Amino acid sequence: MAFQFTPGPLEGLVLIRPAVHRDARGSFFETYKHSEFEAAGIAGPFVQENHSVSQRGVLRGIHYQRPPHAQGKLVRVSQGVCWDVAVDLRPQSPSFLQSFGVELNAEDHTMLYLPPGFGHGFLALSERVEVVYLCTAEYQPASEEGLRWDDPGLAIQWPDAGVPLVLSDRDRHFPLYKFPL
Fold first, then answer.
1. Which residues of the chain have pLDDT under 70?
2. Residues that are catalytic
3. pTM of the shown model
C-alpha cells in the first residue's frame, strides 16, 4: 500500500502519509491513487487543482464554498512548512464549529483531506511555502464565503510564525460567524 490513512480528530478529516522511496538519486512517492483513496472512503472525484505560493507570515483563510458547490480538499505542501487548519461548518456534525490544525511540510509529505462542509486556511511558517490542493468541486465565486481567522467563537490555535501576519483585505474583513451559514 502506498498510503497510510489515519482518521483525524474531527469527523471526516483524514491524515494521509504516502510511502516515500528514497535512494542515492533522491525520492519518489505517489501523491494520489484513486483506488487506495476510494478504499479509504475518499472517493472524490477531484476536479480542480490549486497551487498557492506564500511567504512566511502569510495567513490565508478561513475559506469555504456554500452548497451545492462545497469543496472537499486534499491538501499537501510541495515546498516549505505551513500550519493547516480545518473548521467543521456542518451544522449536523458532532464536531460542528470545532477546528483542527496540523503542520504540513515538504519533508514528510503528510497530506490532509477535508470533506465538503469544512472551512480551510493556512499560515506560512517557512520563508516560502507552496501548498497544492485538489478539490472535489470547481471554484464558484458566487458560492465563496469566509470566516475571520481570529474569530473568538472558533478559538483557532495559530502558531507564532515569527513575523507579523500578512492577510488580504478580504481575509482581514471576513465576518465573525453567524449561523446558519
1. 1, 179-181
2. 63, 133
3. 0.94
